[in-house]
């Protein structure tokens, strides 16, 4: 039996109870009048209006029925007015839902369940508005950060290209050096621009997903090969532990992006001269993937927020390696689009990201 049916039954029983109480009271009053006051009332009415007295005497049953009807009408009116007051209290409480305060909405005791639901809606609304403001603030902070970081490499690019243009007797070695620096800065601008596109896509639309059968082992090997220059730069190795083939029906491009985000995150946060481990297993139709790297321990309060959009775990990271704080959030979205789940653990010096598909 649902809550609405229970409420209907309670209201019906309340109405019946009010009618019964009113009927009992009316009968008590009637018998008191009939036993103790009838002669006195009759004499009084006869003295005031004989015709009215005569009519009452000849229509005694009609008078009783009218009296009982009036009592019933009063009982029903009392019931309706009482619940209309409750409805009015509910109506007034609706204005309080949109007030962002900590004041609890209170309704009559018989409406406790309703007041609990209204308070739940109110606090959900307050939490939603708070999260919206925080997200907007993070986004605004991010735009300022990105604008600053775009300006920095662009200034360098303009500076080195100006040197190449103005210096007539520049050596080939110096020329190659300036070109390399300008190219690196241009690539950084491209990376930041892509991050802006990620922000737009992440906030304005759901990621489309195109599933087909793929070999996850091959996909992970591709991701590792593409990250080889980054691994070399930090003297890192990546060890993939898996059988030769693990087939899965999913979106290869999206999963490659998720794995790429996790591997780059591991590279950025690994101690130099260490090995990043990727373990892929399939058991009883379930696929598990673990990315494990050795690095500084992450405080629990940061660990709990790693998958939040725009959150950057290391505030001190330089602009050359820092991202928009969307990589892990997008990774989580991709895994959940595949009906999987992802979580992180940090035991001692090892940071581990677990994926279940």
Question: Tags for this entry?
Answer:
single chain; 357 residues; alpha+beta; Helix Hairpins; Heat Shock Protein 90; 5-stranded mixed sheet; two-stranded antiparallel sheet; 10 helices; elongated
What's the topology here?
Elements: H1 3-48, H2 50-58, H3 60-97, H4 112-166, H5 172-204, E1 212-215, H6 216-226, H7 228-233, E2 237-241, E3 247-250, H8 252-268, E4 275-283, E5 286-294, H9 300-303, H10 327-337, E6 341-347, E7 350-356
Parallel strand pairs: 2-4
Antiparallel strand pairs: 1-3, 4-5, 5-7, 6-7
Helix pairs in contact: 1-2, 1-3, 3-4, 4-5, 6-8, 8-10
Indicate the CATH topology of the largest domain: Heat Shock Protein 90
Could you give the count of β-strands?
7
The total domain count is 3
Instruction: Count every helix, treating DSSP H or I runs of 4 or more residues as helices.
Output: 10
Helix and strand run: HHHHHEHHEEHEEHHEE
- CATH class descriptor of the largest domain: Alpha Beta
**What is the share of helical residues?**
55-70%
Strand order of the largest sheet: 2-4-5-7-6
Radius of gyration: 39 Å
Main β sheet profile = 5 strands, mixed
Mean pLDDT: 76
CATH architecture grouping of the largest domain = 2-Layer Sandwich
Q: Provide the structure class.
A: alpha+beta
> What is the fourth-level CATH superfamily of the largest domain?
Histidine kinase-like ATPase, C-terminal domain
Beta percentage is 5-15%
């Amino acid at each position: 039996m649902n809550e609405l049916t229970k409420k209907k039954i309670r209201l019906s029983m309340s109405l019946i109870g009010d009618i019964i109480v009113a009927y009992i009271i009316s009968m008590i009053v009637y018998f008191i009048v009939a036993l103790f006051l009838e002669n006195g009332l009759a004499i009084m009415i006869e003295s005031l209006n004989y015709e009215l007295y005569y009519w009452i005497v000849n229509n005694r049953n009609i008078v009783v029925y009218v009296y009982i009807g009036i009592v019933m009408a009063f009982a029903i009116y009392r019931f309706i007015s009482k619940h209309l007051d409750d409805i009015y209290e509910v109506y007034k409480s609706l204005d309080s839902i949109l007030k962002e305060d900590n004041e609890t909405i209170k309704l009559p005791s018989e409406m406790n369940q309703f007041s609990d639901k209204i308070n739940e809606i109110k606090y959900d609304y307050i939490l939603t508005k708070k999260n919206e403001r925080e997200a907007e603030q993070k986004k605004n902070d991010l735009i300022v950060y990105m604008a600053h970081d775009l300006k920095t490499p662009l200034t360098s690019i303009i500076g080195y290209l100006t040197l190449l243009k103005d210096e007539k007797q520049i050596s080939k070695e110096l020329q190659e050096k300036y070109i390399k620096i300008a190219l690196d800065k241009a690539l950084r601008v491209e990376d930041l621009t892509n991050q802006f596109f990620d922000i737009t896509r992440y906030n304005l639309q759901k990621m489309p997903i195109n599933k087909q059968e793929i070999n996850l082992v091959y996909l992970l090997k591709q991701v590792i090969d593409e990250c080889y220059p980054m691994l070399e730069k930090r003297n890192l190795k990546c060890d993939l532990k898996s059988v030769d083939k693990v087939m899965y029906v999913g979106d290869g491009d999206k999963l490659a992006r998720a794995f790429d985000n996790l591997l780059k995150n591991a590279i950025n946060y690994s101690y130099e001269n260490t090995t990043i481990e990727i373990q892929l297993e399939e058991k009883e139709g379930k696929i598990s993937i673990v990315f494990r790297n050795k690095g500084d321990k992450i405080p629990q309060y940061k660990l709990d927020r790693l998958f939040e959009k725009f959150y950057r775990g290391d505030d001190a990271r330089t602009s050359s390696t820092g991202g928009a704080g969307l990589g892990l959030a997008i990774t989580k979205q991709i895994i959940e689009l595949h009906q999987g789940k992802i979580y992180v653990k940090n035991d001692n010096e090892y940071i581990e990201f677990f994926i279940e598909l």
